[in-house]
């Protein structure tokens, strides 16, 4: 097993006061504490940088001179971690809560060949697992794999990705051009196109709590803890949430989402089941804007403009 001292965690942070501290606290309570935590402040508009520096003086802080988006911030943090000699880089979002043994279980996994590892990613607000296409998916059918066994997947979120340092030489880093939306999917596709695999390790669990609740049912703590079967901890600070018909996506973010998804669909060779997954995601976004968003007309116009822009994006 690789020592946790050889692991650097990279967390992009934007307006993270009261959010990222939960993630950092969870990392410091890991059964295998990582060697270094690198927070990349993405030109926050609040005092996030000073807040982290004051509360967690041992965390390495990097500040962007302008807003690069999560993808550019991940890239910056990965390059820094590799330059410091870390063998493994663990990616997390600022609103992630890794379970106590999340890193340990990834380090214990008997890795063979060129591969990156990723945990089971759980959304406690919706009481569900983030499903990603894998090799059990057909073009028009969706069969969930056995989540109790390790399995190879076609796409992954950035949340919880464990990257070997040598991956950077073969694959590169996340694309700053895509900023936020679907940059993790583009990176996943690039990883696989260079002959690497993405393996999901079920004993490692990361909870993507979210900085602000969007549409979600009332979730009680006892129900949430039933979901957390493998590692009952007290890391979770979310006890309940109300049904909230809101979204915190801006018109600019919807434009970016539309542009990036059509860019991926037209420019990269991807399996048919992944294309269907992405097309369903486009439809789901259209429904979400129509039913749940404020400023529906403006945000719908921005999203449709983004879809068209992605066709000519190079």
TrEMBL record:
Keyword NAD attributed: no
UniProt keyword terms in alphabetical order: Glycosyltransferase, Transferase
Family: Belongs to the glycosyltransferase 2 family.
Gene3D superfamilies named among the record's database cross-references: Spore Coat Polysaccharide Biosynthesis Protein SpsA, Chain A (3.90.550.10)
Pfam families in the cross-refs: Glycos_transf_2
Protein name per Swiss-Prot or TrEMBL: Glycosyltransferase family 2 protein
A Gene Ontology molecular function term of the record: glycosyltransferase activity
Residue ranges of domain Glycosyltransferase 2-like in the record: 9-107
